User: Which sequence fits this backbone?
C-alpha cells in the first residue's frame, strides 16, 4: 500500500506493474488479488505484465511507441517489435527460446550477448540495447526482474532502466523500492 501512497491512488494515477507478484513474500495471494481487482475496476489505468514467476498473462507493453516495457530483457532471437508481436504468449513459461529470454534476460556491462548466470535467458550489452532501440524507434527499454539496491538503475547510457518496486526484497535484502513516473511529454522522474 506504500506504493500507492507515494505514487498516487487509482484511478488518479496510471500504473504499469512489471511482474513477479507470486512466491516472493508472505502476501503473494493478496498482492495478486489486489492487482487483479484494480485491473478489473480501472482497466484503462492498470496494466499488469507477466514476470518469469507467472504464467498465462501478457509479456510487454509500449508507452507511446517510445518506451518498451517488459519484465526481463532482450533476446538474440528478436530484433524487432513485430517479432515479439508474433510470439504465442498463451503458454507456460518455456525453458528456452525468445519468450523465455524476454522474461529472464538481464543487461550487462560487457558488449554483445552472453550466457546468463541465472541458467535461463541471456545477458546483453549496451551495443545490443542501442541497436534494438534504434531499429524499433524507441528511446528506452524499461524492465524489472533484477534486484537493484537503490530501487532503480540506469544502464547502457540510459537506453535501459531497471525498476524494482519491492522494498527489502524477501524481507532480508535491505533494498529501496522505486517507481517511475512519466508526465504527458514522457519525461520521467
Assistant:
Amino acid at each position: 500500500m506504500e506504493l500507492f501512497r507515494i505514487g498516487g491512488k487509482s484511478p488518479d494515477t496510471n500504473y504499469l506493474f512489471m511482474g513477479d507478484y507470486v512466491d516472493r513474500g508472505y502476501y503473494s495471494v493478496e498482492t495478486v488479488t489486489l492487482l487483479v481487482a484494480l485491473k478489473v475496476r480501472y482497466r484503462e489505468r492498470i496494466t499488469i505484465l507477466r514476470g518469469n514467476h507467472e504464467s498465462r498473462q501478457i509479456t510487454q507493453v509500449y508507452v507511446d511507441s517510445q518506451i518498451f516495457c517488459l519484465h526481463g530483457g532482450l533476446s538474440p532471437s528478436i530484433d524487432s517489435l513485430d517479432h515479439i508481436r508474433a510470439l504465442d504468449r498463451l503458454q507456460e513459461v518455456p525453458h528456452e527460446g525468445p519468450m523465455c529470454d524476454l522474461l529472464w534476460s538481464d543487461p550487462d556491462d560487457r558488449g554483445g550477448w552472453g550466457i546468463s548466470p541465472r541458467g535461463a535467458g541471456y545477458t546483453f550489452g549496451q551495443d545490443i540495447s542501442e541497436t534494438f532501440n534504434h531499429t524499433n524507434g524507441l528511446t528506452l527499454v524499461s524492465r524489472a526482474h533484477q534486484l537493484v539496491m537503490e530501487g532503480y538503475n540506469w544502464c547502457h547510457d540510459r537506453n535501459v532502466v531497471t525498476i524494482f518496486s519491492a522494498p527489502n526484497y524477501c524481507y532480508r535484502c535491505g533494498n529501496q523500492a522505486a517507481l517511475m513516473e512519466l508526465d504527458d511529454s514522457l519525461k520521467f522522474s
Observations:
- Residues 28-41 form the longest helix (14 residues).
